[in-house]
Design a protein that fits this description.
Helix content: 40-55%
CATH class of the largest domain: Alpha Beta
Length: 512
């Protein structure tokens, strides 16, 4: 018995060593999709939706609240402006989008982490915007700056995430008017991957860009994208001055924006998906057009957040058949427009990391992947309709992203994968485990899941009968213990700290 136990203990030690090795894998710059996108709609159907979007822009228009500058910009570009509503002739908004790049590089402070948006690439980042966090031991609670830092560190360590996103959780222990400074600093200090800045006020967007300039230099940023803002449309058919103020701030600095209508079918759009898709297309085109009026050639991502709702309760629903079909259709339309496409990630309405959360997450993520998404920044940790980011869900989602990386590689057909040598070495009836071909290929032949337990029942029971959530809890705690801070030039760090201190000294705390 002791010999068997020793052997099993050796196996566990090997697994631990493997996990440590995996946590140190150098992250790829992006997921490369070598498999085709899925085309749901035919040409006539696509044209009909696009024409409907044009009808919406001509007949209903887009309202801009408290933003005279934007109204004047569109008026000067030839649109019709009536009070605070802008109307577009057919094709006008599309034409204004043409100077936005089809692909662009987003630079990280570590050049090995710089990524590219567009083409057959998919950039993945963690959850965004959650006011609450959840973990297995402490349960659901308000997010803090410690949680924010933890999530940035975990993202930095995860090889399948290429971007640290933006507001990975709301640190409610920091005043509202000051927390953006700490959040941007966290992205810079605790990771060297690309990141997003603040959009909750124009001056906060400006602060985010100023902090990026300390790191990258103004001259470099004049011709390169190093930071982005996530711009949410106030659907239906409205942009408020908070969002347009941030949009214009990033565009003027030649930095990136992600334009995303936030649509729950039946509330922010008609209940039927073709109408919701057309409306989202209209709203997104106008946002991209505004970036190009501010600074032609500045980078913009065609975003989409379109899901359904429970028409009895009004609660948002995720991973539904209708939202999956809509994602596939929007992907086709974005590709036709020729812009990098942001789509949904591991979405769920579930409160915990359970069967519902994984079913809904899978049925949200796979359509986005197959639709040709170039950016997904809700790819890890999302719970409770986005109100919560879960630590264990983050780990399990992240491993699924590793699986997607493997699927994206596609299948290679060559002399090695056809395994001629294995057949020559073996006789009929012999298994292939001991062949030289297996020895040479076993390590990389299949993606190995860390969080799945494939042991016998007896071994699983001996190891504590842990479910996936319990294993994920142990994993993220282990990762934080192993975390190593990426190097940051001391003079840059000091300048950032000084900038933050001076900004905070000049403001009284605001908690709402």
């Amino acid at each position: 018995m002791s010999a068997k136990r020793g052997k099993r203990n050796g196996g566990r030690a090997a697994k631990i060593a493997h996990r440590k090795k995996t946590s140190q894998i150098e992250a790829p710059k992006f997921l490369t999709r070598n498999i085709p996108c899925y085309d749901l709609l035919n040409e006539d159907e696509l044209v009909r939706i696009e024409d409907h979007a044009e009808w919406i822009l001509k007949e209903k228009g887009i309202e801009f609240w408290d933003d005279d500058e934007t109204l004047e910009l569109f008026k000067g570009a030839g649109a019709t402006v009536k009070k605070n509503t802008v109307f577009f002739d057919k094709g006008h908004a599309r034409d204004l989008c043409k100077t936005a790049p089809r692909e662009f590089e987003m630079h990280a402070r570590n050049s090995k982490r710089s990524t590219i948006f567009g083409g057959n690439r998919l950039v993945l980042g963690p959850a965004y915007g959650s006011p609450f966090v959840y973990d297995l031991k402490r349960g659901r609670r308000q997010g803090t700056m410690e949680d924010f830092n933890n999530l940035v560190k975990l993202t930095h360590m995860t090889p399948w995430l290429h971007h640290t996103s933006g507001t990975v959780c709301e640190p409610v222990d920091i005043p509202v008017n000051k927390r953006h400074l700490d959040m941007v600093y966290s992205h810079i200090k605790y990771s060297d991957k690309p990141f997003m800045g603040s959009v909750t006020a124009t001056e906060r967007a400006e602060d985010s860009i100023k902090m990026a300039r300390i790191v990258f230099g103004e001259e470099f940023m004049n011709s390169n994208c190093v930071i982005q803002g996530n711009i949410n449309v106030n659907s239906p058919l409205v942009y408020d001055n908070t969002m347009t103020g941030a949009l214009k701030t990033y565009a003027r600095a030649n930095q990136g924006v992600v334009i995303t209508p936030f649509i729950l079918g039946g509330a922010m759009s008609p209940v039927t998906m073709p109408a919701a898709i057309a409306q989202a297309h209209a709203e997104t085109m106008v946002g991209v057009a505004l970036t190009q009026l501010i600074r032609p050639g500045s980078s913009a991502v065609y975003g989409n957040f379109l899901t359904t709702m429970d028409l009895k309760s009004g609660a948002p629903t995720f991973g539904t058949p209708e939202s999956s079909l809509a994602t596939l259709a929007v992907g086709q339309i974005a590709r036709r427009l020729g812009l990098p496409f942001r789509a949904g990630g591991h979405y769920t309405a579930s409160k915990v990391t359970d069967a519902q959360s994984m079913q809904e997450s899978a049925d949200s993520m796979y359509p986005a992947f197959l639709a040709g998404a170039n950016f997904i920044h809700q790819a890890a940790g999302w719970l409770e309709g986005g109100l919560v980011v879960g630590y264990e869900k983050f780990i399990i989602d992240s491993e699924r992203l590793g699986i997607l990386h493997r699927i994206g590689e596609g299948m290679t057909i060559d002399e090695n994968t056809l395994a001629y040598s294995a057949y020559r070495e073996n006789s009929p009836g012999e298994n292939f485990l001991g062949t030289q071909h297996t020895i040479e290929n076993f390590e990389n032949a299949n993606f190995r899941c860390e969080m799945a337990d494939n042991n016998s029942f007896e071994q699983w029971a001996e190891d504590g009968s842990k479910n996936s959530e319990q294993r994920a809890y142990e994993r993220w705690n282990q990762m934080l213990e192993e975390y190593v801070e990426p190097p940051l030039d001391e003079s840059i760090d000091e300048e950032l700290i000084d900038f933050i201190a001076k900004k905070k000294e000049g403001m009284a705390d605001e908690w709402y």
